[in-house]
């Protein structure tokens, strides 16, 4: 299984790399929304995890792009965010998001979510 993580914070990238490695998932990392968009088209991952606050493209725009693309719309999206109210500010569930994990990310919570998505 392969995943794409779109996150501009290097510490968060390293942490997720460790978590995914422990779960046996190959992780591809993009540091910006634009890089994530491009990489999604190259990798076609099993799922995409993404931060909502990126320097070049906001998460809402990227979510809409991913779900509008017929080649990518089937890929499950997981939002990883520090914003406790993100699901109330934006209706992320209507944008195709299947899970939301609040930072700091708990490895066990993330593993539980992935078990639900990929039994």
How would you portray this structure in words?
The protein is of the alpha/beta class. It contains five helices and five strands, in the order E-H-E-H-E-H-E-H-E-H. It has a five-stranded parallel beta sheet.
By CATH reckoning, the class would read Alpha Beta
Number of strands: 5
CATH homology superfamily:
Response regulator
Label the structural class: alpha/beta
CATH domain fold name: Rossmann fold
Low-confidence stretches: none
Q: Can you tell me the CATH architecture? A: 3-Layer(aba) Sandwich
Please outline the major beta sheet. Answer: 5 strands, parallel
Comma- or semicolon-separated keywords:
single chain; 119 residues; alpha/beta; Rossmann fold; 5 helices; 21% strand; globular
Kindly summarize this structure in a few lines.
With 119 residues, the protein is an alpha/beta fold.
Helix-strand blueprint:
Elements: E1 2-6, H1 10-22, E2 26-30, H2 33-43, E3 47-50, H3 59-68, E4 77-81, H4 86-89, E5 97-102, H5 107-117
Parallel strand pairs: 1-2, 1-3, 3-4, 4-5
Pfam families: Response_reg
Protein name: Response regulator
Organism: Chitinophaga oryzae
């Amino acid at each position: 299984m392969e995943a794409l993580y779109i996150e501009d914070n290097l510490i968060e990238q390293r942490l997720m790399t460790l978590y995914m490695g422990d779960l046996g998932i190959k992780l591809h990392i993009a540091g910006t929304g634009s890089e994530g968009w491009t990489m999604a088209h190259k990798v076609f991952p099993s799922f995409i995890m993404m931060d909502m606050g990126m320097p070049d493209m906001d998460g809402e725009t990227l979510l809409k792009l991913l779900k509008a693309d017929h080649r990518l719309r089937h890929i499950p999206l997981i939002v990883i965010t520090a914003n406790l109210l993100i699901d109330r500010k934006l209706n992320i569930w209507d944008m195709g998001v299947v899970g939301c994990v609040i930072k700091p990310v708990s490895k066990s919570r993330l593993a539980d979510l992935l078990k639900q998505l990929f039994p």
